[in-house]
């Protein structure tokens, strides 16, 4: 019996070995490179990075944009998941197609489509002026708001689908039971429905946030070089400046944030799972 | 149902519809822009025309990129499906410590910054003397596709009744055959879902690929961004509309065979 179980465990070896060599090892080597200098271990690059005011502004902007993107996506996705779980027939098809079809467009073309929409003489501005909301064109392209809207658009399916997965499994008798016991709708939402759907919210938010802190194509096309993000700094230092120590240091900082999000979200997911 | 319930319900439908419109907007823009007669992107198009579809014939660089991206996506997804099946069985059925950690590790590339993984791979391949761009890209794209496969297969295998495998073995099938003839067909929707998402993720990857390409091996997203910077004419919109049509064909096929909901949810 134990021999069979051990053989089953061995099936994980090819995939794990692959990821260990072609994913974990290269990342560890990158981390090592960021603290290794000619004369031993040094955190000088990090000290230089964190003492530079420009870098700190970029780091702060990256985190803020990612947080706002996650919040916007969540605000749209949460009610949508409930509408989806009640939708039937052609309505369900409409929702499902809207989730998957945009993925076939590709992030480059999608971000470019948004940059067309946000132009001063673009579609959104003409519409706003036609309705009479504004007199002249509003500056939208190259703003942080445009970036958050564009990014939320790209990542939205990855927020909706995990929440939809838990909402669909939600036992509708639970809120009903609470109602029959006299719980008000607000009380039911905050004490029954919301806690039961939190695992989906955590999964979707962690995924959206970690993709939003590392996005590169979307900010390049919507805000351009003037408002750098961490990923743009990395690309610039490797591809244009050829400054590898700087690039490795920024990469390590971004990597540390991403690892924290993975570890924290899986810890949170386990805790939520244990509670139920 | 109280008044508040009805308000909640109506609100979720309104937001849901806004969400659908919001998600479809870039597709509508792209398709509308592809039928313009104008050499620049203007909306709505001044006049309708098919000239940008006709122009695709002359964009051989774009076609080379499409072929390379399809090739990478197909092969890396296939390899990931094999590696992912084996590893998912081990995590679901195995009796060893750290199974949770193995699962988290295998899915983690999804959440790692793409550019950082790209840089790390570039430096690693340089260190071990791997210079072939196609092979580097393929190795990198397996890192992109494997976590998508693992995520879906792990979820669906935890609900799979493995005593069916034992039954098949009692009936004389070898373990690999039992997996292939019993497990895989039973989890067909999960394979379709994970394969689809992995394929699309590989097709759409920019940040890892940008560090691994050379002048002759440029994937589609890289070629597209370069094209937008050099000559932003609507032929790109025409090509994207073609890819959307291809995706619709795949979705219709999926909806007919396993149903859209199972296909998207695994």
Could you walk me through the main structural features you see in this protein, from its secondary elements to its overall organization?
The complex is a heterodimer of chains A (276) and B (266). Helix content of chain A is 79%, strand content 1%. Chain A has 276 residues and is mainly alpha-helical. In chain A, helix 2 crosses helix 13 and helix 9 (173-180) runs antiparallel to helix 10 (185-213). The relative contact order of chain A is 0.12. The mean pLDDT of chain A is 85. Chain B has one domain (59-231, 238-265): MetI-like (MetI-like fold, Orthogonal Bundle), CATH 1.10.3720.10. In chain B, 75% of the residues lie in helices and 0% in strands. At the A-B interface, helix 1, helix 2, helix 4, helix 5 and helix 6 of A face helix 1, helix 3, helix 4, helix 5 and helix 6 of B.
Topology readout:
The complex is a heterodimer of chains A (276) and B (266).
Chain A: H1 2-10, H2 13-35, E1 36-37, E2 40-41, H3 44-51, H4 53-86, H5 89-100, H6 107-118, H7 123-131, H8 144-169, H9 173-180, H10 185-213, H11 217-222, H12 230-240, H13 244-275
Chain B: H1 3-34, H2 51-55, H3 60-93, H4 99-107, H5 114-127, H6 133-157, H7 163-170, H8 175-186, H9 188-203, H10 209-212, H11 220-230, H12 235-257, H13 260-265
Helix pairs in contact in B: 1-12, 3-6, 3-9, 3-11, 6-9, 7-8
Outline of the structure:
The complex is a heterodimer of chains A (276) and B (266). Chain A has 276 residues and is an all-alpha fold. Chain A has helices spanning 2-10, 13-35, 44-51, 53-86, 89-100, 107-118, 123-131, 144-169, 173-180, 185-213, 217-222, 230-240, 244-275; strands spanning 36-37, 40-41.
What is the CATH level 1 assignment of chain B?
Mainly Alpha
User: Number of helix segments of chain A?
Assistant: 13
CATH fold node name of the largest domain in chain A: MetI-like fold
- Which pair of protein chains has the largest interface, and what are the residue counts? A-B, 96 and 93 residues
Q: What's the total count of β strands of chain A?
A: 2
Helix content of chain B: over 70%
Q: Which range does the strand content of chain B fall in?
A: under 5%
């Amino acid at each position: 019996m134990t021999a069979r179980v051990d053989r089953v465990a061995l099936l994980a070896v090819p995939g794990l070995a692959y990821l260990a060599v072609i994913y974990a090892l290269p990342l560890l080597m990158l981390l090592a490179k960021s603290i290794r200098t000619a004369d031993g271990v040094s955190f000088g690059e990090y000290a230089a990075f964190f003492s530079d005011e420009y870098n700190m502004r970029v780091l702060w902007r990256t985190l803020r944009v990612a947080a706002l993107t996650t919040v916007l996506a969540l605000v749209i996705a949460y009610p949508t998941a409930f509408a989806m779980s009640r939708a039937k027939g052609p309505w369900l098809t409409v929702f499902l197609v809207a989730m998957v079809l945009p993925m076939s467009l590709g992030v480059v073309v999608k971000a470019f489509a948004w940059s067309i929409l946000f132009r001063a003489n673009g579609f959104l501005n003409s519409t706003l002026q036609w309705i009479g909301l504004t007199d002249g064109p509003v500056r939208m392209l190259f703003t942080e708001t445009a970036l958050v809207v564009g990014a939320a658009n790209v990542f939205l399916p990855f927020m909706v689908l995990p929440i939809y997965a838990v909402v669909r499994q939600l036992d509708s008798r639970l809120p009903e039971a609470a109602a029959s016991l006299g719980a008000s709708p607000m009380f039911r939402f905050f004490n029954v429905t919301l806690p039961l759907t939190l695992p989906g919210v955590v999964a979707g938010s962690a995924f959206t946030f970690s993709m939003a802190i590392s996005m590169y194509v979307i900010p390049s096309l919507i805000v351009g070089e003037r408002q750098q993000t961490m990923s743009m700094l990395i690309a610039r230092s490797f591809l244009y400046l050829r400054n590898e120590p700087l690039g490795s240091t920024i990469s390590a900082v971004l990597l540390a944030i991403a690892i924290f999000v993975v570890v924290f979200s899986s810890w949170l997911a386990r805790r939520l799972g244990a509670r139920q | 149902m109280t008044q508040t319930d009805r308000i909640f319900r109506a609100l979720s439908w309104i937001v849901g519809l806004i969400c659908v419109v919001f998600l479809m907007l870039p597709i509508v823009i792209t398709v509308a822009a592809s039928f313009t007669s104008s050499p620049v992107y203007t909306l709505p198009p001044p006049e309708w025309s098919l000239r940008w579809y006709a122009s695709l014939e002359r964009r051989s660089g774009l076609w080379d990129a499409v072929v390379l991206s399809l090739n990478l996506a197909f092969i890396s997804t296939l390899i990931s499906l094999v590696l992912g099946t084996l590893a998912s069985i081990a995590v679901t059925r195995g009796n060893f410590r750290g199974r949770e950690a193995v699962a988290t590790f295998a899915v983690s590339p999804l959440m790692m910054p793409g550019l950082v993984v790209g840089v790390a791979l570039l430096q690693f391949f340089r260190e071990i003397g791997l210079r072939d761009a196609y092979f580097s890209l393929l190795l990198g794209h397996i890192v992109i596709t494997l976590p998508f496969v693992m995520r879906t297969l792990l979820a669906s295998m935890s609900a799979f009744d493995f005593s069916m495998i034992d039954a098949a073995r009692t009936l004389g099938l070898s373990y690999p055959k039992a997996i292939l003839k019993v497990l895989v067909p039973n989890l067909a929707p999960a394979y379709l879902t994970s394969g689809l998402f992995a394929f699309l993720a590989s097709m759409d990857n920019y940040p890892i690929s940008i560090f691994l390409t050379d002048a002759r091996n440029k994937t589609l997203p890289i070629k597209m961004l370069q094209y937008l910077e050099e000559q932003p004419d609507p032929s790109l919109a025409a090509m994207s509309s073609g890819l959307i049509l291809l995706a619709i064909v795949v979705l219709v096929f999926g909806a007919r065979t396993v149903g859209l909901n199972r296909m998207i949810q695994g």
